[in-house]
């Protein structure tokens, strides 16, 4: 079975664990990153020169890094994931734009908010930067709120990889002690995700 290298409290590792829960894919997870170290060791950097998590390692030793790339690879090689990442070019492009949107636009303000409220000691917190990030994130979530109008999930009636990559951050958005605009479609979608066992097990956990 494949090995997922990375600590379970990493948002990017959560994507993979939730995917595996949705598809029934067996895996072994090995702690790495943060307090666990490992990522700077020669054996790890040979698999992932960025020294970050996650890294996926196949039984033959082949490895790939970058969480959304790993998701695409796993979805392409796991029969049970066909609906999460369909072959039709336009359907796939629709999903991938949201995966890229997460990386290019949403991750930065959400990371600032998360680190400010969870990982940075209070005397060192930059509240002006956190407020700017909150406003930016609110605008982005409002965009997704509009996308969700008339749709059960981000790309229609079917749960896909787009929901996985954005669902991680949706939980943090709703769980952090911040002011949030009323976004009813986003809240409805988040509630739907909360009813999925893999989301509850791997994502709706204490933020550390």
From TrEMBL:
GO molecular-function terms, A-Z: transferase activity
Record-annotated GST N-terminal domain positions: 1-82
Domain GST C-terminal: 88-208
PANTHER family in the record: DISULFIDE-BOND OXIDOREDUCTASE YFCG, GLUTATHIONE S-TRANSFERASE-RELATED
Keyword Transferase annotated: yes
UniProt keyword terms in alphabetical order: Transferase
Name of this protein: Glutathione S-transferase
InterPro entries for this protein: Glutathione-S-Trfase_C-like, Glutathione-S-Trfase_C_sf, Glutathione_S-Trfase, Glutathione_S-Trfase_N, GST_C, Thioredoxin-like_sf
A Pfam family reported for this protein in Swiss-Prot or TrEMBL: GST_C
Source species, domain of life: Bacteria
Record family assignment: Belongs to the GST superfamily.
Source organism per UniProt: Teichococcus aestuarii
Keyword Ribonucleoprotein among UniProt keywords: no
